[in-house]
Write a structure and sequence with these properties.
By secondary structure, the chain is an alpha/beta fold. It contains four helices and five strands, in the order ββαβαβαβα. It has a five-stranded parallel beta sheet. The termini are far apart. The model has no long low-confidence stretch (mean pLDDT about 95). Pfam families: Rhodanese (PF00581).
Amino acid sequence: MPTVGVEDLKDGDFLLDVREDDEWKAGHAEGALHIPISDFVARYGELTEAAPQDGRVHVICRSGGRSAQVTMYLAQQGIDAVNVDGGMQHWSAVGRPVVTDDGQPGFVL
């Protein structure tokens, strides 16, 4: 499975957060697209509209398990997707910003 470390992500990389609504509301990476794994197949079109045409989709969840499932699914669809190793827990642990919908500091649930 293609994997990338949080440290390797650059500003502007396309990030897909597949955590559930309560996790997202507690805190997320600014600019990420949120499609919960429980809604992913039904909302797949939102991803294809938002994702860069020839770019990579970086998939993140809390720790890496759910995002790994979505990464495998996307790869089967021919999309260049990678799993973000360690998920939002690692994102927060290395000091990357976690925000709420109104831009306030958030936390990883």
